Amino acid sequence: MSFFASSARTSRLFYLAYGLFLQYIVITFTLMYFYQGGYYFDHEATSFIINRNYLSDLGRTISFNGQTNPAYLFYTLTLSLAGLGVSLFFLLISSTLSSRWKYLLLFFALISSVGYIGIAFNPVDSSLQAHLIFGKLSFFAFFFASVLAHILLDRTQYRRASQIFYLLNFLLFLYLLLMFFGPRSSSGLWALALKTLAQKFIVYTMMISALFILGDLRKQKKPPKATF
């Protein structure tokens, strides 16, 4: 019997996925509001500046101003939960598919989840190299999972979800180009602004896109196929 055979269980999993993404949005915005730790070029800045601070600055154990950042525990938790949400999100998508390629999709989803949890537990101030490696791994794997989801869903009744993935894939591709080939943040304020804005744009776009895709899957007349 499929794990998704119970409509009540499937419904709860959808709501759990919603919650895992929404909690990240709410908690990170709350942490931004209370952040006073400065940024790369100004350690004495007393607020989170949207085009100066990375989201990872919220997870620093020691802020730029040299003070302990107790909020890093909240950021570690919220990002870890969002990482779990990535796996659940693609697991729910895979439940609509009969193609064997869905297992490759789940593989990339798992790698992406590990990447986001790795970012959470490797603060940028104390584990920079691990933080950067997990960061690239998470986005790279999510991109491949997203491409596969677009291709596989395009052959089902979930065409709107596939179209959302199409746009998301394009934006993710541009962000990966910036991540791997863009200027270093230390090049100047213009480079820092470009990369911090791009990071927030793509992260929240991924979260919001996932919410719309989950909504599209749920509102279809036919329930997800119990083929997983």
Q: Features of this protein?
A:
228 residues; mainly alpha; Rhopdopsin 7-helix transmembrane proteins; 6 helices; disordered N terminus
* Count of helical regions: 6
Average predicted local confidence, pLDDT = 91
Shape: globular
How much β-strand is present in the residues?
A: under 5%
Q: For the terminal residues, how far apart are their CA atoms?
A: 10 Å
User: What is the name of the CATH class?
Assistant: Mainly Alpha
Instruction: Characterize the largest beta sheet: strand count, sense, and whether it forms a barrel.
Output: none
Tally of extended strands? 0
User: What's the CATH architecture name?
Assistant: Up-down Bundle
What's the alpha carbon Rg, rounded to whole Å? 18 Å
The domain count comes to: 1
SSE class: mainly alpha
Give me the CATH fold name: Rhopdopsin 7-helix transmembrane proteins
Helix content: 55-70%
Q: From N to C, what is the helix and strand string?
A: HHHHHH
Poorly predicted ranges: 1-5, 221-228
